[in-house]
Each structure stands twice: as C-alpha cells, then as structure tokens.
Amino acid sequence: xxxxxxxxxxxxNYKSWSGGIIYILNLIQTFNEFEFESKPEILVIHxxxxxxxxxxxxxxxxxxxxxxxxxxxxxxxxxxxxxxLGRNLIKSKILGQIPASIYPYNAHLAFEDIPKKIxxxxxxxxxxxxxxxxxxxLNSTFKRHLYISTLSDTVVFSSNDAKNDYVTNFPDFxxxxxxxxxAQKLPEFNQLDIITIxxxxxxxxxxxxxxxxxxxxKNHITVLKAIKQARKNYKDLxxxxxxxxxDHRNLLHIVTLRNYIIENELETNLRFLGFIDRLEQLVLMxxxxxxxxxxxxxxxxxxxxxxxxxNKHIILSDxxxxxxxxxxxxxxxxxxxxxxxxxxxxxxxxxxxxxxxxDYNKNILDFKIRLQEILLNN
Length: 378
Hints:
By secondary structure, the chain is of the alpha/beta class. It has 14 helices and 13 strands. The two termini are about 20 Å apart.
C-alpha cells in the first residue's frame, strides 16, 4: 500500500495568529481519526517559533518536520519575479520524498516541485474594512489574490461568504474552488479545576467571556461601552477577556482601550487576562454565563466553533458569516449597537440560559469527509 504524502504549512505561532495555528492542529487531529489505511504521510513545514510540540502531542503515526527559514533576499527576488514573470525563479527544497500536495500554500513558499498546490483564503477583510489596513497592505494583498486567481491551482474557502467575495472581486479566476467549513474536536480539559483557575485569574463571580485577539476589528470597544451602560442596572457585571494584546496594524489600540477603562472606572467589571493556555481558556469559556463575539469582520470564527463544540450560548454581532456559521444557541446584536448589547448582557445575567442540545459530531464528520475529498482524493 502506498500512502498519500502531503505537506501542511505550520508557520507562525499562537500570538501571531492563533486561529491559523488551531486550524492546522485540527487538520492533523482529524487525519489521526481516519482509518489506518487512509492516514496520509504528513510533512509539517514550520517556522522556528511554531508550536510543533502541540503537533507531537497528537501522536500522529506518519509525520515528519521540516524547518522553513528562507533567505530574505530570495523572498524579495521571487516577489519581483512573480510580478514580472508570473513564477518563482528561486525554488525552496523539500528534504526527502516530494509530497503530492501542499496546504495551505502561499506563493512565497516557492515549493515548485510539489505538484498540487492548494491555497486557502480565509476571508477578505481588507475589502470590507479597508480603513483597518495601510495602503501598502491593501495593495499587496489585492495583488496576491489577483495573482492566485490567474493560476489553475485549487483555492479553498472556509465559508460561502468568502467564496462569494472571491468570485465577485476576481471574476476571471482560473482556479478550482472548494468549500471546507472548519469544525474542530476540542482537546480534553475536564482534568482542569474551574475553581483553581478562577482563583488564579481573580474571577470572583459569574462572568461573560470574550476570547479574541485584541485587534481593532474584533470590536472590544463596543463591549467596553456596553459594560459601562449595563452596570448602571447590574453593578456586579463581570466580563473576562483573553487574547494577545498586540495589534500590529494599530499599535496604540490596547492603549486606547485601557484609557477608556480607566476614564470610565470599569476596572472592577472586567478582567484582561492576556494570552493564556488553550485548555484554561476552554474551561473559562465552558463555565461562563455566555461567550461574546463582537467582531466587525470574520472569516470562519474559531470562537464560534468553540461555542458550538461546547454547546455554549454565544452573543455575537449580526455578520452574514456569523449567520452562516451558527443558528442554534446564539443571540445576535447589531455590531456597533452598544445599547442592544448592553440589554442582552443584563438579560443573560439575570436569566438562566436555555441551551439546545446539539450533536457537533456531525460537523466534525462533514469536515472529515470534505478534508479527504480536497486534500487526498483529488
């Protein structure tokens, strides 16, 4: 029997893009649940700071690692050659047997010898919220997507929302388009004690939970304003926030948020925990009154998938992507409507939430089937 050999790109870390790291870990976890004969050989292409120890913990039987540490001059040279000639002139090398496919591919990787390159475009935030990006970022991202659209390679989208954006903005695309709606099997966290964790983080009463990176488009400011308004009627309101506090596009964003907290004396009504352990995060999510996802834009939200997998109620902004992603145990609010969110916080704090039992295993099975179709069968 000859196993299909694939490469997975695992570049970066939790602080730079936790959603992307969790995505790849979940792919490997899903492959690990395939029948023995169907499990592919996986080559993990990673950066120096990638948390490969979390991959090792999965105990996948057919896996290898290759460090990706490109020469910056080569990257620049290839960027120019792609723009002029439409291809990379300096190739990256695979150590050992060449995989049949690589996912999620980026043209700068330059692994030209791998026959099947599968791209992943999670979303088109830069087209919907251009004010969040520099002109240089807007231009380079559009050019990258335009370049991808000229190729015959497969492009994967996590939602119909993103797929429709691509078709609308790049109507002359040459690619094969695939839809892979992310679903995840959560790691076991019952061994952690909620009381101990609450004591550790000084969470001393019932709380709401916001597990988002502190990027401007995640819309934390609306939550803070809602806390200010809601506590007039519910003084013991508590909202717990987790996530990396560095927004590389808006370096002063966290300062703005903290200044707002101080100016409005909200310190007793919230906890900023920063970036915490994933298992601790899941325990806190699972024991919250409800999860809040206030984002102004998403691709396919890991936070929403966590809520679905936990059978936990979530209060979330009324984005089309959110409505595509979830239709049970959810309450929507207009993304910038402070009063509406404030009212929902008070209602949830004073009323026991009725959760509809949902078998998330069906989502995991659908994801598993599509993963095999896209990465192994084609």
